[in-house]
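Troubleshooting entry. The earlier prediction with copper (II) ion gave an output that would not parse, so I re-checked the input for stray whitespace and re-submitted. Clean input:
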Amino acid sequence: MNEIGRRDALGLFFGAGAALALSACSSDASSDETSAPTTTGGSPAELEAEARDLTLNLWAEPTTAEITPGVTTDVYSFRAEVINGDPASVTPSGSYLGPTLHVRTGQRVRITFENRLPEESIVHWHGLVVAQDQDGQPSDAVAPGATYEYDFVIDNPPGTYWYHPHPHGRTGEQVYKGLAGLLIIHGEEPLLPSGDNDIAVVLQDRTIGSDGQLRYVNTMHDQMAGFVGGTLVTNGVTDLTLDVRREPYRIRLLNGANSRTQYLTWSTGQPLTAIATDGTLLPGATDVEGLVLTPAQRTDLWVDFSTFESGQQLELLSSDTFIESGSMMGNGMGNQFGSDLDLDPSVAATFVVIDSESSPGSLPDSLGTAPSFGPTDAVNGDSPKQMILSTRRAAHWINDRQWEGREVSDIETVGANTVELWEFVNQSPMAHPIHLHGKSFLVTSRTWDDDSAAGSWAIIESGIIDTGLRDTVLVWPGQRIQIAVPFGDHRGYFPYHCHILEHEDSGMMRNFRVI
Ligand code: C2O
Ligand code: CU
Ligand code: CU
């Protein structure tokens, strides 16, 4: 049966990734959903027809998880309960990942965050357009035992978002220990696979020691380059296997890794069909041979399994794209070594096509609407602001500055409801995925100031999708990326930073101020 034609026009069904469907790749992985762990949130629930306000308790706590079958690992996890509102708004992940939060455009959401960790923390809603005091910023971190009250209205269109902690200097380790979850916004969308056919895949990596415990940054190089775990961990487990029927699916990908920018391919060599980036539907579906996904980026894929045979497998393969085009300790460019990129794919997830009737579907002709702004709307069209990314004195910098809380420079001050052109110029030897809080921007150009790393870029370039809106953009060494940013009407201070969490923690983060 084909779920596609049956989607409620108002988008009231969600599977949405809902189902961080997971069944570890053990021999008992089977098509029988009841054999999967009961806590997967696997079967889709149905959101109530009438949107009503939502009140949640969300907490972060130390606990244990089985990341690798049979091994108990100490982790941190988000957990949540619905106090008031639709019970289907929170679906457990079945792993160390936080529950998936299902909200709707226009909905009022109140969340009490309780910090049950032995260290300070705060929750940031990555990609959501909210006021400064709702954004979960480093300055709002609360002490162990304390709470933080959120109360905001969902102002973003339907799409794939996530939440993670943001205490200054501790974000990387807290995310690594397990603090992250999906936030799916529902609402009016074109007809896309829904219910069981809407699944989420959270891509991360971990290094697990022989004692079963997580290993994190040990060396100066880990700190400088960003920490890359030795094993891919997807939806919170190694060797993730997902059963699918011979039907079209929406697969919401989130790169939740600390530092690994991934180049993703299908094992069959077929193209990846992207329908949304960073929470926003693309104007039209876009086929790529491989897909580049930096930490914090999301891409929703459309995959039609109807042409597959029962029993056939499709593997999602991931390669690390790390390059160092010069010395980390030196002045950046010019010092050529290690700038070649050898893609070395490993399996991030395996989709197993179960015995089912083939039911093909097709994508709607048009998906999202074209952005309502462009570079010609910019108030500084003749003089884009320049943010220089650099590496020196064993640290990463933005315009020779690091995190200074609410100290902003002139160029970091912007007018509410204006569009500005910003340029990120990467003079450091490695790539940096740059994120602006609460802003969906357009990438308007990518040029080279220094093309020493152009060879490695050429290997992944076709996997960059810049045609829609983004909230995180990859800046390769030597590149100058221009973005057009609509600064909406929330005044105040908002962070922008590298989403390599070790870079963010060590200060590659600044605020901009909207006045
Ligand atoms: Cu995922 Cu400051 O953000
Ligand atoms: Cu953010
Ligand atoms: Cu960085």
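This one parsed fine. Helices lie at 171-176, 220-225, 454-460, 501-505.
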